[in-house]
Specification:
Layout lengths: L3 H13 L2 H8 L3 H15 L4 E3 L4 E3 L1 H29 L3 E7 L1 H8 L3 H7 L3 E7 L13 E5 L8 E6 L3 E5 L1 H7 L13 E4 L5 E5 L2 E6 L5 E2 L2 H9 L4 E5 H10 L3 E2 L5 E2 L4 E5 L7 H14 L31 E4 L1
Parallel strand pairs: 3-4, 3-5, 8-11, 8-12
Antiparallel strand pairs: 1-2, 5-15, 6-15, 7-12, 7-13, 9-10, 9-14, 10-16
Helix pairs in contact: 1-2, 1-3, 1-4, 2-3
């Protein structure tokens, strides 16, 4: 099959009627242009040009070939323009994977404004707390919360993910609050995938504990409801429980400890040749949340701290290991 570059050379020679002029347009010497035309004629098995010392004209076959080549090159140019316009103008199908709770609280309420800004974007949203291989499954973008660890994907932090230890007033009424981190061994600590270790920052620096409790689940929404119902203590994100901390449905225990790592991130296949539709969504989410996200504004964490003293409970049935990092 003839290379597009050879078709381009042929078309330029046909238009200019001069190999030197055609060569100047594309930065090739007349000798190279002449050789490429000769190779093209040999491959096609026909003469495309009549050559004299003064003139270069198309043969009848060459004229018919030129007409069709011109159409092909025009279609190639149109195709490149199509791709260029799609990469520079936000448009087309945008496939997005987002966690369940975060999407319900902090993405879906803002999509009306986003789609009004970019009416040529069509969203295809996958709601799941499961890890999604965005390259294999063809997603443009995914929102991930927590510590990303090592990843080959491009990533950008779009918001803080402050997590605090929470319990309901009813739980605190029955069990009190742990005065020290090690006293969590006396409490029912609830966890959700993928977190089985709590990495916390406190007065002694960064520590990690291995909480033990009666429930481990794969949904932060399920965990949140268990903590609200008074079953135990959970490490919960302020983006998820800000309203409950404001109205007293939940109280903070051990307020000197917060999550030590993580954040709300977007991940995507590559920073190179990123379509405009992906770029504008990332910028929109960064603009929406900012370094001080709206879910943390006007929230007085001091008022949400429980000051109820610890109650003496029976011998712990489970243990919590505390490791200094």
């Amino acid at each position: 099959m003839t290379a597009i570059s050879d078709l381009d050379i042929f078309a330029r020679v046909a238009r200019t009627g001069n190999m030197s002029a055609a060569g100047r347009e594309i930065g090739l010497s007349p000798a190279v242009v002449s050789k490429r035309i000769s190779q093209l004629e040999e491959r096609l098995g026909t003469r495309l040009f009549q050559r004299t010392t003064r003139h270069l004209t198309l043969t009848e076959t060459g004229a018919g070939y030129f007409k069709r080549v011109a159409d092909i090159l025009s279609l190639c140019e149109e195709a490149e323009d199509f791709v260029s316009r799609r990469n520079t103008k936000p448009r087309g199908l945008l496939k997005l994977s987002v966690p369940t709770a975060f999407s319900r609280k902090h993405i879906s309420p803002h999509m009306k404004e986003f789609l009004a800004r970019y009416p040529e974007i069509e969203l295809h949203v996958n709601i799941s707390d499961a890890f999604v291989d965005i390259i294999r499954e063809g997603f443009d973008l995914a929102v991930r919360i927590g510590d990303l660890g090592e990843t080959s994907l491009a990533a950008r932090r779009i918001a803080a993910d402050t997590r605090v230890l929470c319990a309901s007033p009813s739980y605190i009424e029955r069990h009190g609050v742990p005065p020290q981190l090690a006293d969590l061994e006396l409490h029912n600590c609830l966890t959700a995938d993928p977190v089985d270790v709590w990495r916390l920052s406190g007065p002694e620096g960064e520590v990690q504990i291995r909480p033990q409790g009666s429930v481990h689940c794969n949904s932060v929404e399920f965990l949140r409801e268990l903590v609200i119902s008074g079953i135990g203590i959970g490490l919960l994100s302020i983006w998820d429980v800000g309203e409950e901390l404001r109205d007293g449905t939940l109280r903070i225990v051990l307020p000197q400890y917060r999550n030590a790592a993580g954040g709300v991130h977007v991940v995507y296949p590559s920073r190179e040749f990123m379509p405009a539709k992906v770029d504008v969504l990332i910028d929109y989410l960064c603009e929406l949340y900012g370094p001080a996200p709206y879910w943390e504004k006007d929230l007085n964490l001091d008022k949400a701290i429980s000051s109820r003293p610890a109650r003496k409970v029976g011998k712990p049935a489970r243990a919590v290991a505390v490791d200094k990092i």
